[in-house]
Amino acid sequence: MTPHYPEPMVLVDLETTGANPLRDRITEIGIVEVGEGGTQRWSTLVNPGVPIPHFIQRLTGIDDAMVADAPSFAALADDVAQRLRGRVFVAHNARFDYGFLKSEFKRLGLPFRATVLCTVKLSRKLYPQHFKHNLDSLVERHSLHVEGERHRALTDAELLWQFLSAAARDHAPEVIHAAIAELTRQPALPPGLDASALDDLPELPGVYVFHDAADVPLYLGKHGNLRKGVLAHFVAEPRARDKPWIAEVRRLAWHETPGELGAQLLETRLLKQLTPLHNPRPRPARELCAWQLVPRDGLLVPERVDVARLDFAHTGRDQVYGPFRNRRDASKLLEKLADNFRLCRRALGLETAGKAERGGCLGCVTGRCKGLCLGKESAAQHNARLQTALAKSAFAPWPYPGPVGLPEGPEWASRLHVIDRWVYLGTIADPAELPALLQAPTPMFDIDLYKLLHQELRRRGEQSVLLLTAS
């Protein structure tokens, strides 16, 4: 049909009010139709029905006044559908544009499916020697001619046509055809999973869950790109064939998150709520405990405490170490430290001396105790080494006077993860949601979330941490 591919194409670019096709709206459509009769160009502004954020206005040059008298997408739907029908859908970061159009059609109760070709992926395949493949890089690399303003829909759609034409000059037709065929190949889905279930998958971070015919969760995963993460399960590679449960998949659910942290928080919570059949079982944490050093006759003695009884604001001051999933894990740490730091096993409570026994602890016999139990070492010396040994296991005190928010996501779609005393309360999109979240029952302390949040706060330092109040 063309030197680029034997099927008709439609090159599409959209301008929108944001990055989320489920929440944001289209403000401009640019289309270049390519077929036997040559190329046809069409574009229109679209009234999104919502205000355009200032950030987007600065990026695209499209403001509220420009779209005030433009037609709505509903008024344009039939015309747009006719232009797209029966053609390969081509766009740069194609799932963005495809996802927005699919969402707009879905709001009107209209189906929309197409074979999708992403020119970012095509550029990577045809020009692997280059690192950057954004549209500005393609313009510079291939000397594309910009007619109009960048970040306007028809200008950018026209640049895609110029890129395909440049690629056709650089490569033989069979090379381009093979690359496009590979990029548009459909995944081998389980027979019971509707192919349309994958159409709405965004290229955004999040968590996905596969369910069987009885709606039992089979497998839960997270990925920085939901679409890529899900499709990876259906590629014809040995690793995919080693998952027999794939054939049982009947339903796919997913949850978008503003970033990698949100995906980790949600994954940790959902794994314990849903317990999918084919994920590794989370280690039980029914006996969450910690060690607290208590002075007794001048000697610091570790006492086991229930995590539920701790005041997380003072764990550092109170010399608390942990947390541990159970008593066994807590004791294993003391056993290890006793050997590595030559601490007295009796002082640690790991060994009890009989009434008639006058010798030292077992560590003295094996040369792994410095002799506290025989009076060869002072309590102060033993205390100092014990505190040094436990330092890496210190239970971090909650460093803020109250709840905090950890922002994540781009400026126009930022979310706030709300944390209080190492407990993840939830994620909000609007400050107005905060009072209800803070007044809701507090979730139980989770050891895995504690470790994740402790690491995240250390990474951020004081940056990007917001102190919160319910008012």
From TrEMBL:
GO MF terms, alphabetically ordered: 3'-5' exonuclease activity; DNA binding; DNA-directed DNA polymerase activity
Protein name: DNA-directed DNA polymerase
Any one of the GO BP annotations: DNA replication proofreading
Transmembrane segment boundaries: none
Known function: DNA polymerase III is a complex, multichain enzyme responsible for most of the replicative synthesis in bacteria. The epsilon subunit contain the editing function and is a proofreading 3'-5' exonuclease.
Entry-linked InterPro entries: DnaQ (IPR006054), GIY-YIG_endonuc (IPR000305), GIY-YIG_endonuc_sf (IPR035901), GIY-YIG_UvrC_Cho (IPR047296), Ribonucl_H (IPR013520), RNaseH-like_sf (IPR012337), RNaseH_sf (IPR036397)
Organism in which the protein naturally occurs: Chitiniphilus eburneus
Location of the GIY-YIG domain: 203-280
Pfam families xrefs: RNase_T (PF00929)
Reactions catalysed according to its record: DNA(n) + a 2'-deoxyribonucleoside 5'-triphosphate = DNA(n+1) + diphosphate
E.C. code: 2.7.7.7
Subunit record text: DNA polymerase III contains a core (composed of alpha, epsilon and theta chains) that associates with a tau subunit. This core dimerizes to form the POLIII' complex. PolIII' associates with the gamma complex (composed of gamma, delta, delta', psi and chi chains) and with the beta chain to form the complete DNA polymerase III complex.
Gene3D superfamilies xref list: GIY-YIG endonuclease, Ribonuclease H-like superfamily/Ribonuclease H
GO cellular component terms, semicolon-separated: cytosol
